[in-house]
């Protein structure tokens, strides 16, 4: 399971997968892969490129002559503004269902007042990130939330949409992303940035959580990764989680969209696996 975590979370997860592959632990062969937000991007990228290729890209320094940001890319301060906006909605919400509804309404309002070409620009941005990726033969699920109804959504190869559209919807944390006559927002709003509960019924579940399993919703809602892991274990699953080390937590959260920190995040993901490879190899089998 690939959890959300922004640009740095994407790089960290790539570092994890590359390190596992270097030790001949191939998590891309899992019976089920679930991607949420930036984790959906990782899952899609692995459909078109090897972990080694993606790791090399994550380590590459940013070009000094980058073109001006298109409308889909966030301007400085956008992450803080989004965090403030969602914090208010969380404080006002009565429960998870109410929160998803409020988040959907807010995202639709941003979409209505934003640039008219945002949807096409965002689609192009996501396509640039995932390349020629298309739905694989194996089971891949991508999470999102229907902005119009507030209902959770899980896309798969049978949903009738492209993988690029599914990832674009799963990563739409600000404005709502339109597919046909429906609009969607970030899959991290479904339950958490991991949505590990979707793996119920599987014998072994490996969860990559760049945000360290933390949530911003009230503890009483039981939305966090720890609660989901307990539920999975109670149902008979063997669960292993991989989280960033405490000394690199600053790379995530408010700094998750800092592309300049991708190399450090990727190396950190690789190092996390190196320290735990014996137990991870035994777990994966």
Give a verbal description of the structure.
The longest helix is centred in the C-terminal third of the chain and has 23 residues, at 262-284. It is globular and about 50 Å long. The model has no long low-confidence stretch (mean pLDDT 94). It has one domain. The chain has 285 residues and is of the alpha/beta class. Helix 1 (6-22) runs parallel beside helix 2, helix 1 packs across helix 9 and helix 6 packs across helix 7. It has helices spanning 6-22, 38-45, 51-59, 78-92, 96-113, 118-130, 163-170, 225-234, 262-284, and strands at residues 32-35, 139-146, 152-155, 177-179, 182-186, 204-208, 238-242. It is built from 9 helices and 7 strands, in the order H-E-H-H-H-H-H-E-E-H-E-E-E-H-E-H. The strands form 2 sheets. Strands 1, 2, 3, 4 and 5 form a 5-stranded mixed β-sheet that branches. It has a two-stranded parallel sheet with strand order 6-7.
Annotate the secondary structure layout:
Elements: H1 6-22, E1 32-35, H2 38-45, H3 51-59, H4 78-92, H5 96-113, H6 118-130, E2 139-146, E3 152-155, H7 163-170, E4 177-179, E5 182-186, E6 204-208, H8 225-234, E7 238-242, H9 262-284
Parallel strand pairs: 1-2, 6-7
Antiparallel strand pairs: 2-3, 2-5, 4-5
Helix pairs in contact: 1-2, 1-3, 1-9, 2-7, 6-7
Strand content: 5-15%
H and E string: HEHHHHHEEHEEEHEH
The main β sheet shows up as: 5 strands, mixed
Task: Decide which structural class fits the backbone.
Answer: alpha/beta
What is the 3D form?
Answer: globular
Number of domains: 1
Mean residue pLDDT = 94
- Using the CA coordinates, give the radius of gyration: 18 Å
